[in-house]
Amino acid sequence: MTEKVYLENPYLRQIDARIVDKKYVNNKYYIKTNKTIFYPNLAGGQPGDKGTINGVEVLDTYEEGHDIIHVVKDNVHSDKAQLSIDWENRFDYMQQHSGQHLLSSAFYKLYNGETVGFYIGKEYVYIDVDIPSISEVEIDKVEEFVNKIIFSNFQIKSYIIEKGDMDKIPVRKDPIVNSNIRIVEIDGIDFSPCCGTHLRNTGEIGLIKIRKVENYKGNIRVEFVCGNRALLDYTWKNRYIREIGNLLSTKDKDVYDRVINLYSQKESLKKENRILREELYEYKAQELLKKARLIKGVNFICYKYDDMEFREINSMVSYLNSLENYILIFGVHNKKQSNFIVSRSTNLNINMKIIHKEIAKEINIKGGGSSQTVQGACTKDELDLVLEKFYEKILNTI
User: Fold this and answer.
1) Radius of gyration of the chain (CA)
2) Phi and psi of 155, rounded to 5°?
3) Which of 77, 131, 158, 389 has its CA 20 to 30 A from that of 96?
4) Strand 56-64 versus strand 125-129 pairing type
5) What does the pLDDT read at residue 99?
6) What is the pLDDT of residues 224-244, one digit of tens each?
7) In this structure, are 28 and 65 located in the same domain?
C-alpha cells in the first residue's frame, strides 16, 4: 500500500521514496513507490500533479486499489526515488479546490443549493448547483460572503472519522466510502467528505471571482476562478478595458455606456444602409430589365459581373422574381473561382434543379438549389460555357 503523504502534508514539494514495483507496458514505465507526494489524476475530480522521479518526467498518476501508480516514459535506473512535484501547479489546484468547497458552502447556506457537479480545468472552474435560476444581486451576495470568509483567514483542516460518527458533524454531502472517511473542514463553516489536497487557511485562497452563471440542465452552472487565476483574470480584463477606453477617449468607468451608444449608432447606420442598398439593387434591376430579350414570350436576362458579392445578386434576383415571365442567368467572376445563379419567375413551369443536374453530368460544377433557383460554382474558364448550357436547356424547355 502506497503511503499518501500528500494527504498529511500537501505542502511537501520533494521526498525520498523507494520503488517497490515497476512494469514496462506500451513503451511506458509504471512505477509504484512505498510513499508518494503525487496526487492521482482526477481522484475525487481534482487533476493530478506534475513533476519528476529522479529527474524523469511523470506523465500521469492514478490509483490502483490502495496504491498510486506513476507513469513515466523513460526508465528510472534505481530503486531509490526522489519525487518532486511542480509546486505552482499543486498550489493552483489547492486554491481552486479549497475555493470550490467554500463557494459550494455559500450556495448551500444562502440559497439551499447543493452542488451536484464540479470541474477543475486549466483556466476555469465550475460547479453545478441544483437551483433553477439566480439573480445578479444574489450572485453578488454569494461572492461577497465567500470573500469575507477568505479575508477573515479561517483555518482549513482535515481528519478521519468513521461512518458512525457522521451524525456528529453537519456534513454538506454524503461520503462515497463507508470507513476511514476524510473530512475537510473550514473552521466550523463547512464540513465536506473529500480526498483532495487543500490549503491551511482560507486566506491562501486569495480571492474568489465568479466569472459567469448560466442555466444548465435545470440547474445553474457557476464558472469562477480563485487566487492567482483571479489575479490573471483581472489583469487581462483591466488591460482590455483600459485599451478600449483609450481607443474611445473615455474613462474606464464610462466604457460600457460609450460602447452601448456606439452600438446604437451602428444599428441605426446599418438600417439606413440596408434601405439604401435595397434602393440601389432595385435601380440596378430596373437597368437590367432594359437589356431583357423576349424569346417565346419569356424575358431572358443574361449578365456576367466581375468581383460582385453574391448577396447583391441575390437581392436583385429576389426583386426580378416578383415579376412575371422572366428567366435570370447571372455569372460572377471572383478572384478564386466563378459563381452562377439561375432563377425564374414563379409563374413559369421550369424545374431549374433538374436542369442543374443535367449540366452537372456534362461539366464539373458544384451547387444546387430548388426548382425555382439554383446556384453554384465552377472554374473561371468554364463560366461562359456553364451560362450557355443553362440558356440552351431552358430555351429547349419552354
Assistant:
1) 34
2) -75, 145
3) 131
4) unpaired
5) 98
6) 999 999 999 999 999 999 999
7) yes
